[in-house]
Write a structure and sequence with these properties.
The chain has about 850 residues and is mainly β. It has three helices and 56 strands. Strands 33, 36, 37, 44, 45, 48, 49, 50, 51, 52, 53, 54, 55 and 56 form a 14-stranded mixed β-sheet that branches. Strands 1, 25, 26, 27, 28 and 29 form a six-stranded mixed β-sheet that branches.
């Protein structure tokens, strides 16, 4: 979070000397909202949903040397907890990581506190991970995990928490861990050396200044700045310039870099963006350019990157270093409400050979066009790769209005790949770069205002659900991976329990944490990257063996191991068959017991249609009583220093607002990864926002299937359970694909037959008869079941099948639904067993009290 703002500069022309030429815009592959195509061929696969339960603003993403992907973000000081996720399948799905202990049963994220604010992730060369979490603008919590089995356990420490806390905001991590002993650094201590920098909000410098700290274990930190002024509290010393921008570190010299805006009124040589460099001594203590040697600052010693006519500090000025040690800086200009078009994004670069003092003429990488949807921009970030190459990203809106205004604007993620010519040593030459602009998001990821007024957003009722930034990184191939928040769903809590009135302090739009992964075009190493397109398909497979509990480093849970998900629209367009393939659904009691206190096993498929999130689900209990349902995703909203917003997504059962749908479970005699069980929910399209006439052409985006373990039903979640994180824990998932039946309809659900008739002993005296004909493959809700027991005055006929469960191991079928007994409505459960050597059995239980079971006296039961 960032609740303080740099003093604004005068409003005038755009950056002097900047290139104002626009470039073609290409959408992420298959996006219907694109207005042009980029010759770069850059495209993105279907976005990945990081977590189907938790949401947050300002997500962070990082990839370690082993290619493992991690994501973090704040859920708010009110929760004293932040999200921290690790992927066990290369970044397709994610699991909650431990922050203090291994994941407790179902309580996925322990909340030791304090925490819940800004987060950051970084690594050393071994893959050991360093994590930092902000608490209430007061202090920081730090954690270390890995490199082996990263996230299964961690160690924690605290910085500055206590009655004499210096106050903190927006912390960043930088790790010095060179591959060999450097020849250009004075530092002689152990490595890795971890720097933790934060905005010292009570310090003497501009905007409080940057407080740098150092550690060799990532847990215990000491002051890392030289020429200290008299201390006003533990850990407070000299606070150099540049408190907010994300820093870079040079592995050859150990120098750290941070860029920020400055004005002549503050003591800089002009109004613009400047660079501060911290050089380590033998102990790792940093000596910054702006130190005056007497415990104060001389901002005239800063390196000028560019003169600007307005402040370049629109959250945030970010620096990144490429493999040839060129430094890149991205920034976005501010404006007043009357000149929103001045909010454009710029990039400049400097080589190590110049001491990072000679900067290229800034190039505008946003196009400022309403026709492309990139008229006004906020939240820039940048990631450098090979020599002279970098990807810059930002949020861009389609209207030329103040971002803080509530003008119904639509926002998208944009990326510009910038390539600066380099010399033989790889250093940038100063020649103007080429650039390729692409619209990353397949649909707008936010609507209406992005409030930039800090704490003033509460007074203005401004929306800060996105918080202050989002992040881009690259994988080992140079492909961009961009994590962003998708609030286009417009969710807001409607149930009781809110602290504040809806839409007053509580703002709509659940920040679904989403990753866009580049799948075509050149990556940042100058070679083509590859990956799946976002063209609609009928389903998606998932490798077995990754349904782990504990969720990091645990053992595989066959009853939660999702190996595929698919959709199939019926020929008449009236029914969407949603199928999940799970290795073994035949023993829910054993599955629940293996995940400690689990009482509800949930298999949820969720997707976005237009601006609405929908789901289809099957929930089972240890007693093997499955229910099937669908509907609109709901949210639970919690509150913190940045007002209230949706924190938890829920998928309610019918009693809590979902709609009951018929469903079928099919299990072979010996379930396996190659011959798994399946569950199909036959969803009436009217229950999920479609009509039969238009269902085939409707685009369902970001379809993912998940196996969740819970202690209470989804619909029973409330503000108290969300606050304590007593919410479902994801055990496995498969994500994500787009589905459009007119383009690629999925396979039909498994076709099974239950047929037979005969007599058993009466519940009273004599015989009771029955007949079953459940043979339809594509219409799960239909079939016939009749039974008569004259002496017990029972005359029953089924009218609707809600659940059909085939279990080949027991040669049985269980039927659940609604019917009529002697003209009165009842619910029923019937079990038909084929039996050993063809000797079958039949059981019928009605809700009016009738029950009877027995082996067949005559007749037969066939299951196919």
């Amino acid at each position: 979070m960032r609740l303080r703002h740099f003093a604004s500069l005068g409003i005038a022309a755009l950056l002097s000397g900047a290139s104002l030429a626009t470039v073609p815009v290409a959408s992420g592959s298959g996006s219907a909202s694109a207005t042009a195509s980029s010759s770069s061929g850059i495209g993105f696969q279907v976005p990945t949903v990081v977590d189907p339960i938790h949401t947050n603003g300002e997500p962070d993403i990082a990839i370690d040397v082993q290619g493992r992907v991690f994501v973090s973000g704040p859920t708010g000081t009110g929760t004293q907890r932040s999200t921290w996720f690790g992927s066990v399948d290369g970044g397709q799905t994610f699991r909650v990581m431990a922050q203090k202990t291994p994941p407790n049963p179902i309580i996925g994220i322990p909340a030791p506190g304090p925490g819940g604010g800004d987060t950051d992730i970084n690594f050393d060369r071994s893959g050991k991970q360093y994590f930092a979490d902000l608490y209430a603008l007061a202090c920081l919590r730090v954690a270390v995990t890995g490199p082996v089995n990263s996230g299964a356990t961690d160690q924690e420490g605290f910085l500055g928490c206590g009655p004499t806390s210096p106050g903190a905001d927006r912390q960043w991590l930088a790790v010095y861990d060179p591959p060999a002993k450097p020849t250009q650094s004075a530092y002689i201590g152990p490595t890795p050396l971890i720097y933790l920098e934060f905005n010292n909000i009570v310090g003497p410098g501009p905007n409080g200044g940057a407080q740098w700290n150092k550690s060799t274990d990532g847990l215990t930190f000491v002051n890392a700045t030289a020429d200290e002024t008299p201390s006003t509290g533990p850990g407070i010393g000299y606070s150099p310039f540049g408190p907010d921008g994300y820093p870079a570190i040079d592995q050859l010299t150990g120098k750290v870099f941070q860029a920020a805006g400055c004005t002549m009124a503050n003591g800089c040589t002009s109004n613009g963006i400047f660079l501060n460099i911290g050089t380590p001594d033998a102990s790792g203590t940093l000596h910054f350019l702006d130190t005056n040697g007497a415990g104060g600052q001389d901002l005239k010693k800063l390196i000028k990157i560019a003169d600007t006519a307005t402040s370049p500090d629109t959250l945030f000025s970010v620096v990144s270093m490429d493999s040839a040690r060129n430094l890149f800086v991205v920034w976005c200009l501010t404006s007043d409400a009357a000149h929103p078009s001045q909010r454009q994004v710029f990039v400049s670069a400097a080589s190590a050979a110049s001491g990072w003092e000679s900067w290229t003429t800034p190039v505008q990488v946003s196009d400022g066009s309403t026709s492309t949807g990139d008229a006004v921009n906020v939240f820039p970030w940048i990631k450098a790769g090979g020599p002279g190459r970098a990807d810059a990203v930002w949020y861009g809106q389609d209207k030329n209005v103040d971002p803080s205004s509530q003008s119904g604007q639509a926002w998208n993620v944009f990326m510009s790949q910038v390539v600066f010519p380099t010399d033989l040593s790889g250093g940038v030459t100063g020649v103007a770069p080429t650039k390729a602009l692409v619209k990353v998001t397949p649909h707008p990821m936010h609507y209406n205002d992005i409030c930039l007024m800090g704490t003033g957003c509460i007074t203005s009722q401004g929306n800060r659900n996105l918080a202050d930034f989002f992040v881009i990184t690259i994988d080992s191939t140079g492909a961009a991976e961009i994590v962003y928040d998708d609030t286009s769903n417009g969710l807001i809590q409607t149930a009781a329990g809110l602290v504040e009135p809806p839409h007053f302090v509580d703002h709509p739009g659940a920040g679904v944490i989403t990753i866009a992964r580049q799948s075509s075009g050149l990556g940042l190493f100058g070679t083509a990257v590859t990956g799946p397109s976002d063209a609609p398909v009928g389903g998606l497979n998932d490798p077995p063996g990754d349904a782990l509990f504990p969720v990091i480093g645990g053992s595989d849970q066959r009853g939660m191991d999702v190996v595929g998900t698919s959709m199939q629209l019926s020929p008449d367009g009236a029914t969407l068959n949603v199928t999940a393939r799970v290795i073994d659904l035949s023993n829910p009691a054993g599955t629940a017991a293996a995940i400690a206190t689990t009482t509800n096993l949930q298999y949820v498929t969720r997707w976005q249609l237009g601006d609405t999130l929908y789901y289809a689900a099957m929930e089972n209990t240890p007693a093997n009583q499955p229910s099937y349902y669908a509907g609109k995703v709901q949210s639970i909203d919690l509150c913190s220093v940045s007002a209230c917003f949706p924190h938890v997504l829920t998928y309610p059962e019918p009693v809590f607002g979902g709609t009951a749908e018929p469903g079928t479970i099919n299990c072979p005699a010996r379930p396996s990864a190659s011959n798994p069980c399946s569950v199909t929910i036959a969803v009436r399209v009217g229950d999920i926002g479609m009509t039969p006439a238009k269902a085939a052409t409707s685009l369902l985006e970001e379809v993912g299937g998940y196996a969740l373990a819970a202690t209470i039903p989804e619909g029973a979640e409330n503000n108290a359970t969300a606050e304590s994180d007593t919410v479902p824990l994801e055990i496995d998932g498969v994500c994500c694909y787009n589905f459009k039946a007119a383009v690629q309809n999925g396979p039909p659900p498994p076709c099974r037959t239950a047929a037979g008739n005969g007599d058993i002993n009466s519940a009273s005296q004599g015989k009771a008869s029955f007949s079953i004909d459940k043979t339809r493959c594509h219409d799960i809700g239909k079939g016939t079941l009749q039974a008569q027991d004259a002496s017990a005055t029972m005359n029953f006929q089924a009218t609707e099948f809600q659940s059909v469960v085939f279990n080949d191991a027991t040669s049985s079928v269980t039927l659940v639904g609604n019917g009529i007994n002697n003209g009165n409505p009842v619910t029923f459960t019937a079990v038909a067993v084929n039996g050993v050597a063809g000797v079958g059995a039949f059981n019928l239980t009605l809700s009016d009290g009738y029950t009877n079971s027995g082996t067949l006296l005559d007749g037969s039961i066939e299951l196919h």
